[in-house]
Amino acid sequence: MRSCHRPPRSHRVDAGHKxxxxxxxxxxxxxxxxxxxxxxxxxxxxxxxxxxxxxxxADQLHEAQLLQFQDVTQLSEGGESGAYxxxxxxxxxxxxxxxxELDKPECVDATNRWGDLDTVQDAPTSVATYEWEKGxxxxxxxxxxxxxxxxxxxxxxxxDCSEYTATYEDGTSSEYSVGDLDLQEVxxxxxxxxxxxxxxxxxSSMISVLYRNDGVLGTTSVIGDGDPAEYEEMLVGFTEAAxxxxxxxxx
Length: 251
Hints:
This protein is an alpha+beta fold. Helices cover 29% and strands 32% of the residues. Helix 2 (31-42) packs across helix 4 (88-98).
């Protein structure tokens, strides 16, 4: 796994360290295991340099993020925009994963293999985190040509990554289960998956949809331990509302 330094040019909505963790979902295991499990589940990883000129488009993407959906409210301290490879969140997640050993190393980015594409590395990107009493919702938007956004959707998890184990620096471990999620299609095309993480007998779950809306590659995730049907309804409803806002703001 790669080790990255934090970027000097990426624009943070909040300059404090708390924002680095806000995008990482609060899995139940405490301390380092919480952050490590989240980083592995989200699969954010990148190194390299994106041009500062990407910032203008990234700021426009951030303006296109939903502010609120039903009782889900955007957290101002949980957002970030800039070139994908320069995002503090992306590079911080990579650093966390450097201290984590997987029994199947190829599964480190099982559900987000598209993040390694050269076209994504330099692309304008916005990340937003949302507070919800029943869990956490996150949204990531990447500006890409439509054809390249479709290629990103083709980057599916390796067949052998339905189950794998992550061992953390303190010697404890988590069991990961990854599966396809049968959801209605959103945007121009989409695919969805679920991730379950079991640590010390406690289970945390995330469901996520990756979609293309013309030239925007987006991913919405819902994290928590509530009713799966309710979480799936939130995932679809939030994403459809997010696409509507993108069309209004970026169109």
